[in-house]
User: What shape does this take?
Amino acid sequence: MSKETVLIVEDEKDIAALIAHHLEGAGFRTVTAGSVSMASRAVERHLPDLIILDLMLPDMDGMDFCRDLKRRSKTGHIPVIMVTARGEELDRVVGLELGADDYVVKPFSPRELTLRVKAVLRRLKGPKEEKKVLSHARIVLDTEAHWVTVEDEKVDLTLTEFKLLYELMANEGRVRSRETLLNNVWGYTFEGYERTVDTHIQRLRRKLGEQGKIIRTVRGIGYVIREGRP
Ligand code: CA
Assistant: This one.
């Protein structure tokens, strides 16, 4: 089996080399580009299986490059993990809306980044979801149109909130532990990340309004969507 190729777009040579070292240790082939123009040429030569993209590059903003990649039919399917020094939530959300599949904030651990690369690639190879439209109570979730309505009103969810709701609705009646949610929604799990799940659930409930109460907390374990008794 041929190795999967990861294109690392990063102008800081030390960081690029560190990422490459860890990915190669994990069995990937790596190509490094120090600018968007170098990255474009690398993509023309050989389509990578995944791109790690720094946002601050000398010739062009990484976000614009990501947008271009996602727009083109030849490259739109290639997963992108963004690397950013700007940690603001807004940037993260915007990054994900541009089609990035995940992101890390500098400074990050190369081991964590390697795990995320594997998780993103695994997620893409996973079986396609069968059910396109899920509904529960007055909530309807459409996986193809990628929207959620509550009592026929559209609700704006972030990508993570959408995936979280999908995971709970697709497993109606079954309790999902925080760890399972981390694995299936975020694609990886880390010690201490459980609280991230709680924070996202709280936000999701708020956005769902009165219907948010269908997401029940199972103390000490996780969450479930279930009718009837608490
Ligand atoms: Ca940079």
